[in-house]
Design goal:
The protein has 427 residues and is of the alpha/beta class. The protein has three domains: 157 residues, Aconitase, domain 3; 104 residues, no CATH class; 112 residues, 2-Layer Sandwich (Aconitase, domain 3). The strands form four sheets. It has a five-stranded parallel beta sheet with strand order 11-10-9-12-13. A four-stranded parallel beta sheet has the order 7-6-5-8. It starts with 9 loop residues before the first helix and ends with a helix.
């Protein structure tokens, strides 16, 4: 057995000695080694299900598929049913030409087999594919203080910040291993010290800044550190309403993708900030002021990756991370209202609204609104727009989005919500 420095319980040591099988031994060893790299002194029990970032069947991930087969052959399953990031494809709602489909069939050729493997090691159900697993319709909703092992960056930052749970930004597959043993290494954001803020971010704008841009500004400045944000409560109030949670969801996702933020505190709003206030700041914290000029500077800094800067957009993605039910309803009303005002019946640009399968199902219960939205040419899907854009043929298209995460990882052009709506209606 490899000599470990971590303080392990007799049960954990027994697993490492192979007394519960070679496969579980390798799982435990991987988790312990991972924890020791970051200075963890022990493992702590998980309070909730894991959430996996690896949801796609890319044939190049052959070692992952072989590993999954070994887990299945050994009869290993996670202690609690888990959720996973979105699927990559939905030809019914996100249309592709024959050549694009050929590329996708190569890129995600193992999707069906991989999903079967996920089911056998503990996947919650066939609808458990979303980056917003924490929404009530999806059901993987941790409570304040819960210890987790998640890997999707936008989900981690939401769980930590808005819900007050505790999870590190774990590497893919490690979170699955943690779910199999029911424990995670205690370091970083699982500790009180690791949740202290090294930055005081003062929002001094004249109006509520766009969530995606604010998150982008914060992420690029603080990178992986924890920020303590002041000034937002003057716009958002001091209650975590559904609208406020949606704002913080998008802000956090942008901070996690434009930087590597895994936790933020918002004064008078997020759980730990309400309880501890500025005591969360470290003694040597730095200050970053965000005013109207800084917001404009950040927007101007975004590069345009299109080959033809003046090209007419061919596709619009809204919902990265996935939209909440309220956001889906809001965008539906906004699109149909703007079309009616312009005397138009159809969107000028194919528009895709992305949300979790169970959120789409909840929206579709209002059949009249659902049918009216589809009649405009707008489509609803549960795929990951980023995975769609990973197709090199799709990446060549002039795609617009209101998502800073999608902008960061692809060639999509970022536009503010009002600009997006204007393009959807007028082209």
């Amino acid at each position: 057995m490899i000599p470990f420095k971590m303080e392990l319980t007799p049960e954990e040591k027994a697993i490492l000695e192979g007394k519960q099988g070679e496969t579980l031994q390798k799982v435990m060893a991987s988790v312990v080694l991972y924890g020791e790299v970051f200075g963890a002194k022990r493992l702590v029990p998980l309070d909730g299900p894991v959430h996996l970032v690896t949801s796609f069947g890319i044939p190049l991930l052959k070692p992952v598929f072989e590993m999954m087969d070994e887990l299945i052959a050994s009869g290993l399953r996670t202690e609690k049913p888990f959720t996973v990031d979105p699927r990559p494809l939905d030809y019914n709602n996100v249309r592709c030409n024959p050549l694009e489909k050929v590329v996708f069939s190569i890129m995600y050729g193992k999707q069906k087999e991989y999903e079967q493997q996920l089911q056998q090691v503990g996947l919650k159900d066939d609808n458990a594919f979303s980056c917003t697993c924490y929404l009530p319709q999806v059901g993987n909703v941790p409570a304040k203080g819960d210890i987790l092992a998640w890997a999707e960056s936008s989900a981690v930052v939401y769980a930590n910040s808005v819900l007050g749970a505790r999870s590190n930004r774990n590497s893919g597959i490690i979170e699955l291993f943690c779910g199999l043993i029911g424990k995670a290494p205690e370091f970083g954001l699982l500790t009180d010290e690791g949740r202290k803020a090294k930055w005081l971010v003062e929002v001094k704008t004249s109006r509520l800044p766009n969530a995606q841009v604010l998150g982008s500004a914060i992420g690029m400045k603080v990178v992986e550190d924890v920020p303590y944000i002041t000034g937002l409560d003057q716009f958002l109030g001091r209650e975590l309403t559904t609208a406020t949670r949606d704002y913080l969801k998008d802000m956090g996702a942008a901070s996690a993708s434009n930087g590597a933020v895994g936790l933020y505190h918002v004064e008078n709003l997020t759980p730990e900030a309400v309880e501890q206030g500025r005591n969360l700041l470290t003694e040597d914290y730095q200050t970053y002021v965000i005013d109207d000029q800084e917001i404009e500077r950040v927007i101007r800094s975004y590069p345009l990756m299109w080959k033809q800067p003046g090209a007419k957009p061919k596709l619009c993605f809204i919902g990265c991370p996935h939209l909440s039910l309220q956001q889906l309803e809001s965008w539906s009303d906004a699109i149909m209202g703007a079309l009616a005002k312009a005397g138009r019946k159809k969107v000028a640009i194919p528009t895709i609204l992305c949300a979790a399968p169970d959120v789409v199902a909840a929206f579709a219960k209002d059949r009249t609104r659902y049918d009216q939205l589809r009649a405009t040419g707008t489509r609803l899907t549960s795929i990951c727009a980023l995975m769609y854009m990973n197709n090199p043929l799709c990446a060549k298209k002039p795609v617009i989005t209101n998502s800073n995460k999608l902008r960061t990882y692809t060639t999509a052009k970022f536009l503010l919500d009002d600009e997006i709506l204007n393009r959807i209606v007028h082209g």
